[in-house]
Structures
1.
Amino acid sequence: MQMQATYHGTRSALFWLAVRITVLTALTLGIYRFWAKTRLRKYIWSAVAVDGDSFEYTGTGLEKLLGFLAAVVILAVYLGLFQILLFFVGLSVFDAAAAPGQVFVQFGALALPFLAVVPLIFFAQYRIFRYRMARTRWRGIRFGAEVAASGYVWRAIGHWALTLATLGLLLPRQTFWLEKYKTDRSWYGDARFVQGGSWRSMYGAMRHVLIGVALIIGGAFAGALNAAVPAVIALMMGPVWFVVGLVSYRVRAFAYLTAHKVLGDDISFEAAPRTGRIFRQIIIGGIVT
């Protein structure tokens, strides 16, 4: 079963809404931004209709403000306890370390607090996803997601570690399994979402990323062989192609994952985003802002 989704919002209405909330955010020294996000989401959700019925966003700015304050407190306590532990552990490490290796130990001690925040980032990502689902309704029936942030954290850490260890070659595996973890724990009313497909099938979406990497590596080899002109051309094109390839990967991966989602037993989805149009919007939006 397939239904047509349409967007009936207008650029002018969204523009003037953005102007109003930007002014209010500036006048309140940033405090209004929680209500600003809520108003934007309410407009965008209501502008998207499926089978003639629009979505409804029920979140509030006060909820976001309270959530932000709670996150600040948790982060402060977490990092404070981590710094105390690092202080006592670090004293003994520095005392036992030989002078030549002390620089590496100190660098590791400085990097550890940043790494310690990574689990909190993944935890927040899932909580934000669950909040948006719980505050979204269609035809008076709400969406939802399981309380499963801790499981998402450890899976995200593991997949990111594999992706970094393989220099990005397992990025489709990471994208697919993390999306599947969230999708399989989501529902609409009493119907569950299921993420189908295979992560191996997503390598086609990485084509331009791999071309960009190949150009960079080829340019480095050309430089080593004193082929100046090919090296310069490849090293100039490679990074640009890589960035465009990342955008293309995100777009094509989204389309693939959407096409392989199922709600209940018979509701499927389809998305046909165009990389060129999205890339133009990113450039124009970056210039305007």
2.
Amino acid sequence: IPMRWISSALAIGALIIGYIGVFHRPEFTGTNWFMHTIGVTGFALLSGGLIGLSQHRIQGLRRVLDMGWLRATGKYSYGMYVYHLPLYVLIDHFLFRVFGMNAVLPLVYALPYIAFLLAGTYLIAKLSFDLFESKALAWKKHFRPEAPAPRTIAEPAEAVR
């Protein structure tokens, strides 16, 4: 990806998020119109720019992106995506049934709740990967696509009938 495209995406994304941060600061905690519209675009441009930048093998960025905890999170991210909602619904149901607590918790309870959800989601995703996904991924070697042999310029293409 050309650096000018990456720079443009990063600059436009930063401008959008900066605009929201300066003129509509409450949007970061109580998302409303701006974060649901242009804010999503801003974060998408920043994320896309970071992905594009990572392909240029910049040493400092490479060191950050190669951190073990980031690599592990990436390895289990699909499982985290799949399992976070069922886990949240089960725990939310449990808290309401047993303790009568709603989803809106005071900060003193919200922080341990979030930490527990993150740790639980990560653990379930890791177990799922180790027990199921890795075994399914090992089958990939049996389903490699066979590419046709490349033609030289001198060989004519098959006639279209």
